[in-house]
Structure formats: C-alpha cells, structure tokens
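During the no-cost extension, the postdoctoral fellow (Dr. R.K.) reprocessed legacy sequence entries with the updated structure-token encoder. One reprocessed record is reproduced below for audit purposes.
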Amino acid sequence: MIKKLLLLGFFFSCAVTGTANAEGKALVLDGSTTVGPVAKSFATYFTKKYGVRVMVSESGSGNGAKSLINGSCTIAAMSRAMKDAEIAAARKKGVNPVAHVVALDGLAMVVHPGNPVRSLSKAQISSIYRGAITNWKEVGGVNSRIVVIQRESNSGTQESFKELVIGKGVQMTGNAETQSSNGSVKSRVSTTLSAIGFLGLGFVDSSVRVIAVNGVLPSVKTVKDGTYPVSRPLYFYTNGQPAGAVKQFIDLSKTVEGKGMISELGFVNR
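Re-encoded structure tokens follow.
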C-alpha cells in the first residue's frame, strides 16, 4: 500500500478537490530527507481523503527551519530539534516554532555486506569519524583503510549523529566523504567494501549490513525502549499551535492509518 502511495504521491500532491481545508490553501512541507518518506506518504493519503493539496520538498532539516522562519512552508520536517539560534531567528520574525514528534528513528551504522566487522562501540565509531582510527584492522577487521561517509552540513541526520556519537563541538575528520541523502550514503557504502556510513532506519535494506553499536542492533524494540544508543525523534514543526487542516495533517501520526504508514516505512511509532 505504502509503495503505491509513494509512487503516486507527486500526482496526488497536485490535486485539490475536498473540503478539509476550508480556505482552499495548500499545505507546504520542506526539510529532512529522512522524514521525507513519512511526509510524502501522509501527503498522498491526506490529499486522497480530504482533497487538500500537499506539496513536499526535501532540502534538508536546516532549510526546513529556514523555510518555516521565512514563511515559505506550512510545516518544517526535521530529523533534529531546532537549534537555539534558529528559534531566536524565528521569534525575531514573529514566528513561534512548535515541535511535534511524528515518529522515532534509529541511526543505523552500515557497512558493505562483505565487511566482517559485526559490532563497534560508540567510542570506536567516534574515533573513526574523528580520524583517530583509520584502518579496519584496528577494530577487528581486515587491513584496509576505512572510507568514512558522512552527510552534508545542512542535514539533520548529520547533526544528530554528531551530537549522539561524536559530541558537540568535536571536529570530524577532514577525510570524510560527504553524501547528500540517505540514498546516496547507502549507494556509496553498498559499492565500497571498506566504507562505513549511517542511515535513518527506514532506509536500510539488504544492499548494506547493519552493525551493532555497543552490542545492540537498531530495531523497533531497541529504538522504542532506548537501548539502542543512537536513537532520535523525528519532527514536524509548525508556526504556533496547529489548527484546521494543519492539525489534521500533524495528527495523522496518532491515527491507525498514520501509524501503519510509519511502521511500513521502517520507522518507529512513538
């Protein structure tokens, strides 16, 4: 069902036929590529059920925050919490950002399926991304230089990873390769025997292998109970408390239909 909804999402986002949005205005979402599949799936369902046009862009969490501050989107989809500086900039423009947790996510550490390493400690991962560990043989693997894959600086996933694993203000290695999306990280790791990267849980498939962190693999159970150490909430941000069609859209995550979409996409319900 969800695959069909995502496939048809673009077409349904252009339809305006129902009455749920009394003012006839479109809902515009911008932000995280990680939250993107949930936003698109919700958008398609919402348009079909209520006839409200919903447009979804995936320009990164930082740009989602900017769009909300500038008034160019109705909802900012973000894979991290808004920064203090973003909240201050918003309030300066009369915008009151309100966070709504739509789902939970585990940042899965992934390697090539041919990599023999099955588990790393969070400290080891931090050392790899800081450049202190540079060869797989230092963590029980083969004698091969580690190809470190990260996300772009505007990515909420990058920010979450740095906060949860590296530590705020700690410099990452300058040798890391930067990829623009979960999909491009997955593609690079799946074709590079010595690579390591991180993905939102909903993007993991058989082309890569997930490794345990501190002996724990990411799953619905370990993300929900907090035992997986690299977990985070996913957000929709609105300007003030939502009402009308915006509230209906936000509240989809609380419905049976919305929870089903979140689960089918590989993310975790609250």
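Residues 3-24 have pLDDT under 50 and may be disordered. Residues 2-104+234-264 form a domain with the D-Maltodextrin-Binding Protein; domain 2 fold (CATH 3.40.190.10). The remaining legacy entries will be reprocessed before the final report is submitted.
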